[in-house]
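Hi Q.,

Before the meeting this afternoon, I wanted you to have the zinc ion prediction in hand. No need to reply - just skim if you have a minute. The sequence and ligand are here:
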Amino acid sequence: MSAPTTTRVDPIAFAQSLIRCPSVTPEDGGTLDLLQQTLEGLGFRCTRLPFSQPGTPDVDNLYARYGAASPHFCFAGHSDVVPVGDARAWKVDPFAGEIRDGYLVGRGASDMKGAIAAFVTAVSRFLEERSDHFDGSISLLITGDEEGPAINGTRKMLKWLADHKETIDHCLIGEPTNPKFVGEMVKIGRRGSLNGVLTIEGVQGHVAYPHLADNPVPKLLTILMNFLNKKLDSGNAQFQPSNLEVTSIDTGNSATNVIPARASARFNIRYNNEHSAMMLETWLRKECDAVMSDEAERYTLDLESSGAAFVTEPGPFTELISQAVQKKTGRAPELSTSGGTSDARFIKDVCPVAEFGLLSGTMHKVEEQVPVQAIEDLADIYFNILESYYGS
Ligand SMILES: [Zn+2]
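Predicted structure with the ligand bound:
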């Protein structure tokens, strides 16, 4: 490596600078330029990976790697943020990066510019101590499309990495995982998510002449109740039980004297690793066929999977993270698979992945904020992870 001009990055000042780049998805707002400039100053080779696809917003992304040898540890995250929401409910400018009563307040403070600042701080401190005898690789994989459709982001970056023979051995994502304090929870997997739309075709008619019509509503309700009455599983050591939730029922009928022509329902299944989307589809169709037994009866069931269940089994990698946390906090974190989906659903196909970041309490809310101490603590823990990953 060329000798980098290593200077330790201050995590709070850097988090403030990142927040001041307004990167409401899919805008970049200068975030990636700032990150690239800082990482190049630390000796990273940076590659911008802009992607586009018809019908989706163009997105810029950044891959930055230090070193060329293995093992290769990757910090992954996103530079985009969700919109401000009710702007009048903010007491400060969401993009000013203000510190108020020991809290950094602003859009992205916890999700996840604070964590990106902690990545960079930990790396700068590690390289300050180790750059002259470091034999491995550290990278940052930062997408501008996590809060958006997630089509032109991590998924395509991983394809680019594979095409360019860039092999990552382990990955840590900086999503906010801690309910109350930094070090409380590490996420090692997520449940899968399957969206369904069930539509029953009937025959429209007058409510006073039901024999001349075929009301689709009772059949829809029967099928939905059969869905809901099925216990999918009891959960297991890594996962809570799977659940199916009906989110909408609709006939599109505003008249009081009309039997509707069709009725449809939307539902979502959050499922654990005892199921696959295909197994669930087989079961759902069986339930539909049982009620819609008559050949003339018609239904459509559209299913869309937005990520399969996965878990990084507890082992040396999760243990290394746990110990790095414990070294800082004195307590072992809970290893959890709770919560919504994240880009870990893509990265898990490439290498073992875990998620650990800031506090989740105010993410996506107005007045998003995080204690400045939490960012400092997170940077210390990320540093501990690097030290123990590469040995002393
Ligand atoms: Zn996030």
